[in-house]
Amino acid sequence: MKRLNFTNTQVASSETARDINRGVVLNLIRRRQPISRADLARVSGLQRSTVSLITEQLIGEKWVVNGPLGRLPRGRRPTFLRLNERRAIVVADLRPNQSTVAVADVNGKFLSQESIATLSHPAKTAAKLAASIKHQMLAHPELVFEGIGISLPGRVEMGTGKITFAPNLKWPEFDFRKPIEQATGMHVEMENAANACVLAEVWFGGGEAVGDMVVVTVSEGIGTGLFVNHQLARGLNGLAGEFGHISLDPSGPVCSCGNRGCWEIYGSNRAAVRYYSEAENITFHDLMTLAEAGDAMALQALDRMAHEIGRGMRLVVKGLAPEEIVVVGEFTRLWSRMGPTIEAEVKASVLVGKAPRVRPASDPRMARLRGTVAMVLQKHFGASSPERFQERNGRQSAVKAGV
After folding, report:
1. Quick one: pLDDT at residue 117?
2. What CATH class does 210-360 carry?
3. Are 17 and 44 in contact (CB under 8 A)?
4. Burial class of 394 by CB neighbour count within 10 A (0 to 12, 13 to 18, 19+)
5. Which residues pair with residue 347 across a beta bridge?
6. Could you give the residue ranges of the DSSP H alpha helices within 33-176?
7. CB-neighbour burial class of residue 391 (10 A; exposed 0-12, middle 13-18, buried 19+)
8. Residue 398 or 123, more confident
9. For residues 393 and 278, which has the higher predicted lDDT (pLDDT)?
10. CATH fold of 87-198+367-380, please?
11. Run of H or E residues at 267
12. pLDDT, tens digit, for every residue of 316-336?
């Protein structure tokens, strides 16, 4: 995730200044739409003539459209600007058993979606996914598609799209991007599911105000996405944040990664099902339904799951000291019961000062898909930090440069 540095006072080229200003204006429209040109100039600190040139460029590129006319006590009525909802993205969320393919507009609003089976072979899954993507695109002939975004429970080699580590999918290394691009003719962006959830919070959930945040995704396994100093941290080989595969008990059960006693062995959906019954064949959805109906054994299983999630978060707090921990997962439907247990574990791990805020994601059910929307769009919009920095710190010389 690109970060624009507005504190650097080194003189920028006119092209760099244009790119920065364009990103600032586009993000302000995205966050504050509908908004007039006059308000864009006031909030950004750019000259009105500069704002006018940039907005005309964005309209010409079909990123922005004119909206309704505003009302003023006197004078000419302003024209409000908004993003062009005819620009769209196809997104997919890969999971071990079932994957979801959807179409979303540039505001993250979902227009349609369908589910497909995730197959044991990556090439067959890629072919099935490509067919579903083409079906979704054909169903919306009125839209202009910007690209394809895919999230998955694993790690992808930057630049190549090769899946390098996906223990819960049980796939070998495989170039997943290439066959989908060849089949659809569209550019594909791929990202780890937890990292996608970070982008969802930053772009659509108000997380841009937080500089250091960890997103913990709990499903078949446990993933963590790291937002450090307003940047998505990837680390060596793109493996930053694999807290789910840190061993809590070296003598514990074997994990899908090959190690023993990993955090996800104790805190994942699969662990909760195991706590409920070693013999009975139920899904985590079934377990949640039983718990919501008051089943004592189901509630006990989820209580233990909450304790184990919190126990693993102790590692996150000790190692990273984030401002906020955001949790994504089906279990957050029972946050009123499970949340206090997790929060108590987090609070107990703080050495000094205030504990990180722990909360469910803004939209846990759609976080992965919404994050893939941001994944595709960010190369045009840049990070959301330009808007945040501009509003917080006022006018900077690089931003004020004309186009």
Report:
1. 96
2. alpha beta
3. no
4. exposed
5. none
6. 37-44, 48-60, 122-138
7. middle
8. 123
9. 278
10. Nucleotidyltransferase; domain 5 (3.30.420)
11. helix 263-267
12. 999 999 999 999 999 999 999
372 has a pLDDT exceeding 80:
yes
**How do residues 111-146 score in pLDDT, each as one tens digit?**
999 999 999 999 999 999 999 999 999 999 999 999
H/E segment holding residue 102: strand 98-105
| Cα gap 179→127, rounded to integer Å | 7
CA distances from 263 to 83, 133, 176, 270, 313 (A): 42, 34, 28, 12, 9
| CA 153/CA 156 separation, integer angstroms | 10
DSSP β-bridge partners for residue 132: none
- Tell me what pLDDT residue 383 has: 43
pLDDT at 55 over 50: yes
Same fold, 87-198+367-380 and 210-360: yes
Q: Where are the beta strands (DSSP E) in 196-336?
A: 213-218, 222-228, 231-232, 324-328
Listed by start position, the domains of the chain span 87-198+367-380, 210-360
Contact of 29 with 379, CB cutoff 8 Å: no
Q: What are phi and psi of 303, to 5 degrees?
A: -60, -40
Which pLDDT does position 6 carry in this prediction? 38
